[in-house]
Amino acid sequence: MNFARTRIKICGLKTAEHVDAAVAAGADAIGFVLYPPSVRAIDLAALAALTARVPAMVSTVALFVNPTAAEVSAAIGAARIDLLQFHGSVEHESDSFCKSFGRPFMKAFAVDAGFDLLQSAKRYSSANALLLDTPSAGHGGSGKTFNWQLINTKNEASAAAPRLVLSGGLTAANVGDAIRAVKPFAVDVSSGVEISRGEKSTDLIHQFCRAVRAADSL
Among 65, 95, 101, 193, which is disulfide-ready with 35 (CB 3.0 to 4.6 Å)? Predict the structure, then answer.
């Protein structure tokens, strides 16, 4: 399926400078991490301040890992949140839990040899997006790619294609290959636009967005 333009999400932003850079570079969505163990985590006060900088037509995304209902509700009450992203276990983050907050949501999955995309899509039938990521102890942001061939783009992915978001070790150097291999609706980058772990780079944000647009033009 050809979506004409691959959407871009820049995740794990912590500063006004990098939020503004992502908007200027053409990102469609900006992600904020609300998982305290992460080096990219921010608190609710920062979340409110940063989301207030994001203009209309650019989505704001709040990322959680096995949160309580109260934690999700607190974030929704504190800031403008357009999309919820759940990055924890399927046992804790059920479809019914994820959809209970009255916001569109995206469910993340770690892709290994045993991953079943069709089964996951059915299990999370309420999800607006399915994010495919590299298995990692830190629930994302590993900086490593997974084997894109584990996603059968001719069969499995075609059924879930309008909801597919590809993540995991993407950079300006490899995102074109990733788009051609998986043909996702969107790509999600965090570590791939960092100069050190957790520290974003304005230049790398712009390079990544340009690389996506270049891939779309082929």
Answer: 65
